[in-house]
Amino acid sequence: MINVYSNSFQLALKYLKNTEVNITNVIIMTGDFNIKDSVWDPNYPFYSCYSNSLFDIADSFSLNISKPIENFSTRFSDNNNNANSVLDLVFLHLSFSEFNHHIIYPDWRLSSDHALITVNILIHKERISHMRQLLVKGSNEEKQFVKSVIQVIKNLNTFFMYNTDALEEAVQLLLSKIEESW
């Protein structure tokens, strides 16, 4: 997850553009991007030159812009001369079709000038079946396995172990023979 605050000089966008190759496994990018644009704000009539950079960054992470269930402003102006706007955005990974939208809660902002945004991520129950192999204590199988391991250890040639490579080779051989006995 990447949470972004980009100031009016778009320093966060510049940083993300320069470091995108070092960030992996992003499933969600959200934050205050401080970009007014008609693409996500139906009340704003213009296109921003920063939008292309933002979409390029999102695309480099395989993210797509999320559409809110209902369109609301996300930033509320305390100045009557300035209109409320949509500055807070959510980008979601393309492979997660289960959560392809978000919810904006303008009434939950309390003293903040930004609305709360949520994304519901469904977590599916998954049953992972596995098999355990065990030897019952005192069984004939346990006795045979112990006998076999002892024989493997006795047959291990340790005469030429003069360096770490030879030791590593001997340990790998021991491991292989024990797994074979199992």
| Radius of gyration over all CA atoms, rounded | 29 Å
Beta percentage is 15-25%
| Helix share, percent | 25-40%
- pLDDT < 50 runs, ≥5 residues: none
Query: Would you tell me the structural class of the helices and strands?
Result: alpha/beta
Secondary-structure element sequence?
EHEHEEEEEHH
Gap between N and C termini, in Å? 43 Å
CATH superfamily of the largest domain: Endonuclease/exonuclease/phosphatase
Task: Give the CATH class of the largest domain.
Answer: Alpha Beta
Number of domains: 2
Number of helices: 4
The CATH architecture of the largest domain would be 4-Layer Sandwich
The strands making up the biggest β-sheet line up spatially as: 1-2-5-3
* Shape verdict: elongated
Report the mean per-residue pLDDT as an integer. Answer: 86
Number of strand elements: 7
CATH topology value of the largest domain: Deoxyribonuclease I, Chain A
Largest sheet, described in full? 4 strands, mixed
Write the layout of secondary structure elements.
Elements: E1 2-5, H1 11-19, E2 28-32, H2 51-60, E3 63-65, E4 67-68, E5 88-93, E6 101-105, E7 116-118, H3 140-155, H4 164-181
Parallel strand pairs: 1-2, 4-6
Antiparallel strand pairs: 2-5, 3-5, 6-7
Helix pairs in contact: 3-4
